[in-house]
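This part of the workshop introduces the protein records we will be handling. To make this concrete, we reproduce a full record directly below.
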Amino acid sequence: MKTKVLIVDDSALIRSVMKEIIGSQPDMEVVGVAPDPIVARELIKQTNPDVLTLDVEMPKMDGLDFLEKLMRLRPMPVVMVSSLTERGSEITMRALELGAVDFVTKPKISIQSGMREYTDLIADKIRAAAKARIRARTVASGAAPGGALPALRNPLTSSEKLIIIGASTGGTEAIREFLMQMPSDCPGILIAQHMPEGFTSSFARRLDSLCKISVREAAGAERILPGHAYIAPGHSHLLLARSGANYVTRVEQTDPVNRHRPSVDVLFRSAALSAGKNAVGVILTGMGKDGAAGMLEMKAAGAYNFAQDEASCVVFGMPREAIALGAAHEVGALTALPGMVLNYLATQGSRALRV
């Protein structure tokens, strides 16, 4: 059975391009196109689509207002179509908080040579969205349940250990929920989230405003400090490296790995090489298998690893692959993972002090 897609965009040109791209996929069909949310509302009733692509900035009704009402009254998988602007990225971050599964940037119509790659990207996003677990939004997103967890109260734990996180589809919200429970003295955190250039800086700023810890987009050559999280920039791989006795960030614009840059496998493998048993790996919701092999290398190097469980994932792809390889020591729900990680770290710190 084909995935039914409804396209909502105020640009006739974008609607035409999206219709051609989606209609060219053998497992998808476009059941309607709408220039605004008012028309879209009626088409949803008529066509009952499996996935909606939604422009973030539209006339008559703001895309965010429409999304908020949609996720409250008729939850369904939504892929946002965003402009490559600072305003577009900020709106997109809010859309993901409201329940959108993922987003793509608007196609560069004039550059035909890259359309094949763009077509594959949109198709992959829609396939992932069609498999996503969608939950009705009954309260405004913002605060993590219970707030930040208690401080570790063990300088040894926070200065020597590192938390290494990888995620993809659904990962922006999963990372937000995880980081909002981190106490201000938690170990340094490195994050690879599949996200294009121009959006990771907005993502980092949003998290920094919500969390007790400091969150920034990694620039490279930064000393990794407790109470700080470093997010891979959308244009580069993020790696962990050593400089003398210190851990530092490194960013590289080498070729994509598993079709991604940043790649979770690249980050995890660097953690295996540079941190070994001092690393704690966390793999969250996401489509595909990026990170599974790297997490197994972390385990072989002495790291302790956690994977998000199927029930709490938007898409149970990356965690499933890591679990299948035997790379994860423990599996838990998203709400429980921060506590599980901190409990493990506290236990390790106690052991170190006894030794």
Summary: Residues 138-144 have pLDDT under 50 and may be disordered. The chain is about 40% helix and 20% strand.
